[in-house]
């Protein structure tokens, strides 16, 4: 006699929980697993996987450490910690005024004083990840879409879509004009959404671009602003790499364009910033939303309750960034070091026969390996990616994970390692390319 | 040809334009009064005293001492700077292992080490606020609902509902049985939802309770576990006040109950925790989701990307919570100081004929002012509340903002001020009662038999004069200006 045991009905989680929109099954993240399992170490594991898929800035820590050693009050609330209590209690979603002022001033420094930022418009969030999601909740309803130029940061698939229920419709860019955003591409994306009965609520650009490592020109910014004005939609400009532009004069922020227009029509524009890339502090979770729209500022501030920045961290960074001399020095030196790294990797790749998109910013370069593809398809690209990962032991990011329309492009990070490690990586690439030629 | 009109404003989302942020309720109005006219013992002795903010400010002297003696806990000092780089780049949503280990250990200690918490089940979030929203996103779809016993913390309306699109349905509790959560009340609430075609995904309880300051007894907890298993819905237990229990009976965590109960489906149980109340660190945004459901841990962890705890703070918290001796002493002192504060306040109120719900936890009292209402309505409660804010100059929170079914109850926070301010508050209450003595509506059930409405100032002073429990270096009594609500 069989005894049937009724299985307890498994309790359902939400649709959001069950969906794959967190995006972690893409190759962007698979490479990280390979790295985690076999991480390169100069001494203990010289043949391990070199992590080139993580856009971190590790070139300027010494500057921060030097500052901190000289200014202990930034981290200890002063001798005897008199400021501790007030700081530990501070959970006001306006954020510490000293910190907001310091952020506004730092953002101005990065833009060479060409744009002004009002501390009252700075909203604080725990990282740009939170900032992008929060803005999406504010400017779009579930089922609506944001237009995003390709290729784009893979994390957007999660940040803009997962819990918000908002869609991404790509603005397709290609190498024929160095992946610049054109009005035709904007219109095409808009029409595509319309044809699918999807309401477009905004355009989200990243400037400087991740993964391209290049800034958007002023004239393109003007076109994008005109387009969003014409359609009466929002414009979000993610400027988290603005402090990583090698040559300051080459970066034009949407803030400058607005200032030149005397802020006419600026209520549709919102800027996202963070200290994760420029200062190399991703662990501290420091993101900001700067909006020219009062209602967005108020609402974003209320929503930031879900994702406030630790008051301990606000205090530390308020001290550090209010030191204008330090901030200026940091920005200059950081830029110079990134430029050096960039030039080294470009030269190294070129001598191995590999070309990259001309870049001027960011912590990575956009490498063109399309000539190496067996087949000019996504599968061909993923095959090459696997070779890179398992044979060369380099974790780089395939363009398809960034939704690039053309196969064969790869994002290669260069600022998250020592100079020596970079040489090791270049050496491996050289050897591989030599092998291929014979 | 259409002209580009740069004067049109783009539309915001429904979430952005609705009142889901819940800031329009009276809970926050009192804060405005406080912001405009905050009490200060010397600079503004007639200002509004903030008694609407559930903060734990009684033990900062202990923490400060620890900080001064442990500079290596700060990665940005000379002593700690060699850790700086590694911590600053650490954004792994698993959290620093030392942080998770320390939090798991602390959670166990707070529960008298009767249960063990696994570090791998700890998920970070942006404070308990972020934790509540996160768990709701994991467990419920738009339009689904959670049952929640009344009275409850007003922030839940925003945290569980605003961006998630989930609804809160009340499980109505009454003072007649000290607001106990009964099976009948649960069943009634559930049935109402079914009738209205609203899917119930879970039950949210806060234990110890905010605003009641009481803890749930074993029988009630078992009843809740049985209820959720029967209905196959989730149980979310907010235990953020766990370490504020200052007197017997001892706190019983849901984690103890489910360990005893073999029949409970563990996939249904989740705990929300935070260091904001127990340690007094709301600014550090240390929220924790602890789930017995593997899928929820995994999904929750991914979602925690939207609200990770700053690694700088994780490191500090890991250091402080790992100091066994310090923590042992802290928990003892904290209990004692809360007990004393509670005793002084309830005694002071009793002297002027004001009763509070009998409580043994929390940072507040649930004060019974039903006898002062001209009629038993929300309007009368609101009128009384305005008098308390504007005339007595105390920001207390009206029961209606906590969705209390009976008008006349008020939550009064007592752990967010020093002794001097507490005395001023009690004096003002005493004076108010004295002034309104002949206007009182006496309801037999509300008042003690030996109620004395008249009193002498001298007696009041005798009552409130206590040996100083605060360190001589206690900072100023006012709460930092909380401009959190517009």
UniProtKB/TrEMBL annotation, chain A:
Q: Pfam families, per this entry?
A: Aminotran_1_2
- Domain Aminotransferase class I/classII large as annotated: residue spans: 50-429
Q: Which GO terms describe its molecular function?
A: 1-aminocyclopropane-1-carboxylate synthase activity; pyridoxal phosphate binding; transaminase activity
This protein's record includes keyword Transmembrane: no
Tell me the domain of life. Eukaryota
Keyword flag Protease: no
**Which keywords does UniProt give here?**
Pyridoxal phosphate
Q: Which family does it belong to?
A: Belongs to the class-I pyridoxal-phosphate-dependent aminotransferase family.
Q: What is this protein called?
A: 1-aminocyclopropane-1-carboxylate synthase 7
Organism listed in the record? Rhodamnia argentea
TrEMBL record, chain B:
Q: CDD domains attached here?
A: AAT_like (cd00609)
GO biological process terms, semicolon-separated: ethylene biosynthetic process
Q: Which cofactor does it need?
A: pyridoxal 5'-phosphate
Name the gene behind this protein.
LOC115740915
Q: Where does this protein act, in terms of pathway? A: Alkene biosynthesis; ethylene biosynthesis via S-adenosyl-L-methionine; ethylene from S-adenosyl-L-methionine: step 1/2
Q: Which SUPFAM superfamilies would you find in this protein's record?
A: PLP-dependent transferases
User: In what residue span(s) does the Aminotransferase class I/classII large domain sit?
Assistant: 49-429
- Report the EC number(s), separated by commas if there are several: 4.4.1.14
Matching entries from InterPro entries are given as: Aminotransferase_I/II_large (IPR004839), Ethylene_sulfur-biosynth (IPR050478), NHTrfase_class1_PyrdxlP-BS (IPR004838), PyrdxlP-dep_Trfase (IPR015424), PyrdxlP-dep_Trfase_major (IPR015421), PyrdxlP-dep_Trfase_small (IPR015422)
- The reply to whether Lyase figures as a keyword in the UniProt entry is yes
Return the protein name: 1-aminocyclopropane-1-carboxylate synthase
Native source species: Rhodamnia argentea
Which keywords accompany this UniProt record? Ethylene biosynthesis, Lyase, Pyridoxal phosphate, S-adenosyl-L-methionine
């Amino acid at each position: 006699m069989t005894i049937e045991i009724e299985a307890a009905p498994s309790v359902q989680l939400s649709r959001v929980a069950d969906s794959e929109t967190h995006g972690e099954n893409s190759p962007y993240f698979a490479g990280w697993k390979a790295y985690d399992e076999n991480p390169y170490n100069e001494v203990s594991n010289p043949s391990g996987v070199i992590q080139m898929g993580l856009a971190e800035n590790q070139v300027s820590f010494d500057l921060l450490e030097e500052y901190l050693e000289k200014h202990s009050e930034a981290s200890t609330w002063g001798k005897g910690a008199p400021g501790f209590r007030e700081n530990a209690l501070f959970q006001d979603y306006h954020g510490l005024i000293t910190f907001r002022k310091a952020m506004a001033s730092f953002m101005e420094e990065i833009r060479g004083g060409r744009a002004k930022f009002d501390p009252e418009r700075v909203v604080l969030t725990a990282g740009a990840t939170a900032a992008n999601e929060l803005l999406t909740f504010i400017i779009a309803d579930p089922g609506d879409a944001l237009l995003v130029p390709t290729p784009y940061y893979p994390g957007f698939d999660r940040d803009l879509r997962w819990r918000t229920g908002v869609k991404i419709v790509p603005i397709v860019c290609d190498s024929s004009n160095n992946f610049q955003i054109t009005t035709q591409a904007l219109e095409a994306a808009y029409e595509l959404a319309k044809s699918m009965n999807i309401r477009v609520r905004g355009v989200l650009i990243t400037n400087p671009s991740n993964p391209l490592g290049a800034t958007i020109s002023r004239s393109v910014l003007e076109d994008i602003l005109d387009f969003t004005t014409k359609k009466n939609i929002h414009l979000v400009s993610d400027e988290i790499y603005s402090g990583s532009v090698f040559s300051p004069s080459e970066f034009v922020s949407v803030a400058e364009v607005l200032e030149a227009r005397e802020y006419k029509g600026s209520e549709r524009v919102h800027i996202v910033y963070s200290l994760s890339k420029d200062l190399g502090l991703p662990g501290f979770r420091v993101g900001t939303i700067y909006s020219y729209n009062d209602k967005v500022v108020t609402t974003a501030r209320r929503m930031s309750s879900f994702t406030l920045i630790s008051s301990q961290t606000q205090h530390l960074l308020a001290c550090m960034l209010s030191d204008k001399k330090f901030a200026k020095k940091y920005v200059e030196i950081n830029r110079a070091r990134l430029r050096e790294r960039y030039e080294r990797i470009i030269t190294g790749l070129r001598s191995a026969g590999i070309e990259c998109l001309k870049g001027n910013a960011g912590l990575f370069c956009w490498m063109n390996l399309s000539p190496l593809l067996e087949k000019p398809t996504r599968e061909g690209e993923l095959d090459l990616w696997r070779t890179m990962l398992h044979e060369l032991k380099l974790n780089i990011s395939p363009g398809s994970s960034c939704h690039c329309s053309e196969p064969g492009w790869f994002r290669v990070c260069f600022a998250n390692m020592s100079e020596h490690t970079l040489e090791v990586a270049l050496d491996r690439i050289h050897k591989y390319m030599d092998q291929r030629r014979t | 040809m259409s002209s580009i009109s740069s004067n049109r404003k783009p539309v915001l989302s429904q979430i952005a334009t609705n009142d889901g942020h819940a800031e329009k309720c009276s809970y926050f109005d009192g804060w405005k009064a406080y912001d405009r006219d905050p009490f200060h013992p010397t600079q503004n002795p007639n200002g509004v005293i903030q008694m609407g903010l559930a903060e734990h400010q009684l033990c900062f002297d202990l923490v400060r001492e620890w900080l001064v003696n442990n500079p290596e806990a700060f990665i940005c000092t000379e002593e700690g700077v060699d850790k700086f780089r590694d911590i600053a780049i650490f954004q792994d949503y698993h959290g620093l292992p030392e942080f998770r280990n320390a939090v798991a250990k602390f959670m166990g200690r707070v529960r008298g080490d009767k249960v063990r918490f696994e570090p791998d089940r700890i998920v970070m979030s942006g404070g308990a606020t972020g934790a509540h929203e996160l768990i709701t996103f994991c467990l419920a779809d738009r339009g689904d609902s959670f049952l929640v016993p009344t009275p409850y913390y007003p922030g839940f309306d925003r945290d569980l509902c605003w961006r998630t699109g989930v609804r809160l349905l009340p499980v109505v509790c009454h003072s007649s049985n000290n607001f106990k959560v009964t099976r009948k009340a649960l069943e009634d609430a559930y049935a109402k939802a079914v009738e209205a075609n609203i899917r119930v995904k879970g039950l949210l309880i806060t234990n110890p309770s905010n605003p009641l300051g009481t803890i749930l007894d074993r029988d009630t907890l078992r009843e809740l576990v049985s209820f959720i298993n029967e209905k196959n819905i989730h149980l979310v237990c907010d235990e953020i006040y766990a370490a504020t229990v200052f007197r017997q009976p001892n706190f019983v965590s849901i984690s103890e109950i489910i360990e005893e109960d073999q029949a409970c489906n563990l996939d249904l149980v989740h705990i929300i925790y935070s260091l904001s109340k127990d340690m007094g660190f709301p600014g550090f945004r240390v929220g924790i989701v602890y789930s017995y459901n593997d899928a929820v841990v995994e999904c929750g962890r991914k979602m925690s990307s939207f609200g990770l705890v700053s690694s700088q703070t994780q490191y500090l918290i890991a250091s402080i919570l790992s100091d066994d001796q310090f923590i042992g002493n802290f928990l003892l002192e904290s209990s004692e100081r809360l007990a004393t504060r509670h005793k002084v306040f309830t005694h002071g109120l009793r002297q002027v004929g004001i009763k509070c719900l009998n409580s043994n936890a929390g940072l507040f009292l649930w004060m019974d002012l039903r006898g002062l209402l001209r009629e038993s309505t929300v309007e009368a409660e609101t009128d009384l509340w305005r008098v308390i804010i504007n005339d007595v100059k105390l920001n207390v929170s009206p029961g209606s903002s906590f969705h209390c079914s009976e008008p006349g109850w008020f939550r009064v926070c007592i752990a967010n001020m020093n002794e001097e301010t507490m005395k001023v508050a009690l004096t003002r209450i005493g004076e108010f009662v004295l002034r309104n003595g002949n206007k009182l509506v006496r309801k037999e059930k509300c008042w003690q038999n030996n109620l004395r409405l008249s009193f002498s100032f001298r007696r009041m002073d005798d009552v409130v004069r206590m040996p100083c429990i605060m360190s001589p270096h206690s900072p100023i009594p006012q709460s930092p200006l909380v401009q959190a609500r517009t």
